[in-house]
Design goal:
Helix content is 14%, strand content 44%. By secondary structure, the protein is mainly beta. It folds into two domains: 84 residues, Elongation Factor Tu (Ef-tu), domain 3, CATH 2.40.30.20; 92 residues, Elongation Factor Tu (Ef-tu), domain 3 (Beta Barrel).
Length: 202
Amino acid sequence: MFTGIVTDIGEIVGFTPTAQGQLHRLRIACRYDQTTIADGASIACNGVCLTVVASGVAGSKTWFDVDAAAETLALTTAKHWKVGTRLNLERALKIGDELGGHIVAGHADGIATIVSREDLPDMARFELSTTRELARFIATKGSITLDGVSLTVNTVKDVTFSVLIIPHTLTVTTIGGWKTGTEVNIEVDLMARYAARLTEMK
């Protein structure tokens, strides 16, 4: 489990696809203490929970390796990742940690696309579109996870919704680089999904 509070921005420094394109081995550089990263640990990378298979130190940077499997490549923006891609990182939640965002599983539901970006004096406003299947779980003032960042939905209209981003979030995540046409991973609020399921069962 995660909270959607990004703790570092990593960068892909190694990329090894299989011959069949069904699995990508990624090496990600970060600022985490390597001694705290165990093989088998879960790290959310742009909102996608991936399992560490190796880690080490090169120069002044820690690195860890993860595998992105076929389903991840099919459903998320991982299909577009390459050497140089910057990723929002979050370590798995520990008992006793502060829950600063909302409960996030790290299981991206799909992709949302930036429709527009409006830079305001104190923040930025993004409008995004997603599939009708996912849009039914998105509500005004509800929680949403975009590229691993816990955000509050500002407005909703049909399959489009908007979020307002404060300067701090623009600085400490990759959101500052978003522009029209950018694809991002989306995870809907777990509570919204369960509420919808309960309604369907009535």
